[in-house]
């Protein structure tokens, strides 16, 4: 049987990389081959030596095309098979190799905003909708825009075998969230990037785009984050490692914020359920802290913590690698 493989990769755009993909027709009996692309069109090469290599790292069923078709998540290599400098996955693999014995788990909350005709989906032409307050987890055509896309996306993620754990409408109209996890340091990146690709691709069919802009509308409107929930086996078993993890993140706060997505100071203002980007804090149930300890974790004296700082446009490989390194090196 001949089928289609959609090769998906992350480009070299700065400060925020974007997804690319192209289709390969695969004939019966063929292996899933490494493939190549024009790196000079993706900010991953100069024209004179433009070939870059797509190395498949995860193959999943493609619910959009159905049948035997697949999605192929790739990492980008140079022609000598060394990782390209834009390849952030290698750091996640290294962190997991180093600290895998601590069993790091991630739960990633990916927020995003639908756009149609150049404005957030559901926003009136040339004006503003009613102030936020009723939209979070809302119901009804006056508050909810894009639910069909969200439903299709959820099922596409499930069909692809991704560990999607939930979705919800967000505080700003047109804004939504899906959660991936718990999964390990490498899978966190693989699955969030694949789920992002599926979101963009499915929204295409509705003539709607999805953006990860961390602050799509300035003023009294919530930004979009990528809250990152994290635990190790020790944190899942006791309280002291929970506090040690919060303290470890505080010691490296500057490095973390610098790696949590472009434009983070536009979103972490201290308003709209954020802590100021320049001041680290942690607390139980505190949505105004950098890192929140969920109330049931406080009650059970074990569990996980939520780093609320990463932007929606953060690279989950970078965030997961850094958190693994920072926390696990202290808990070791
Ligand atoms: P919030 O209350 O902040 O909106 P969500 O319910 O949206 O939280 O997301 C919580 C995420 O944390 C989910 O993806 C969930 O799978 C994940 N999670 C649950 N337990 C753990 C754990 N022990 N370690 C890491 N992540 C976890
Ligand atoms: Mn959430
Ligand atoms: Mn949210
Ligand atoms: Mn959250």
Describe the structure in your own words.
This protein is an alpha+beta fold. It folds into 2 domains: 3-87, Roll (Ubiquitin-like (UB roll)), CATH 3.10.20.70; 94-331, Glutamine synthetase/guanido kinase, catalytic domain (Creatine Kinase, Chain A, domain 2). It is 28% helix and 25% strand. It is built from 9 helices and 14 strands. It has helices spanning 89-99, 147-159, 185-204, 233-237, 240-251, 253-258, 264-267, 295-300, 316-331; strands at 3-10, 19-26, 35-38, 51-61, 70-77, 105-116, 119-120, 164-169, 175-183, 209-211, 228-231, 282-284, 291-293, 305-307. Strands 6, 7, 8, 9, 10, 11, 12, 13 and 14 form a 9-stranded mixed β-sheet that branches. A 5-stranded mixed β-sheet has the order 2-1-5-4-3, with helices on one face. A hairpin with a 2-residue loop joins β6 (105-116) and β7. α5 (240-251) crosses α9 (316-331). The N and C termini lie far apart (50 Å). 45% of the residues are buried. One manganese (II) ion binds at residues 109, 111, 170, 177. One manganese (II) ion binds next to loops.
